[in-house]
Amino acid sequence: MMAILNDVFFLTQQPVIMLEHDFGIDGTCFSTTIKANWESAKDEILGRGGKKRKRRQFEKVVLAAGTTFKIISSFAVAHSPSASESPYLRPLFEQILYLYEMVGLMAADAGFLSRENCALIGSAGAIPGYSRRMASPTGDLTHGGR
Asked: pTM of this prediction?
């Protein structure tokens, strides 16, 4: 199944390979059942509040897409819904480099921020663009600069 999806992604990108230069990457969870909702279940999944975990209700995917034409350029299915997104940048970025003529900007949120990821993006001649995280009035971490 993954090989078929990769082929579809490759074919849909052909018309814009020389036109797309900026990309964004992020991860998200999606429900494997219509009875589950991430916002209502994330505390249980992440082990907060002493509730039993329900990991099989969600899958996590990390996607990279062009910012001009909004075509998904690479993806990976994470091993768990609570998996860190940062380790997925390298294989997804390398696939983008393989497919596209030039990468000018690789935008990501703070979940991807690491020296290794910045060095990887910079070594390809691209600019790493990260949004910062800041505390909201309620004390939760939010994304800034949007």
From this structure: 0.75
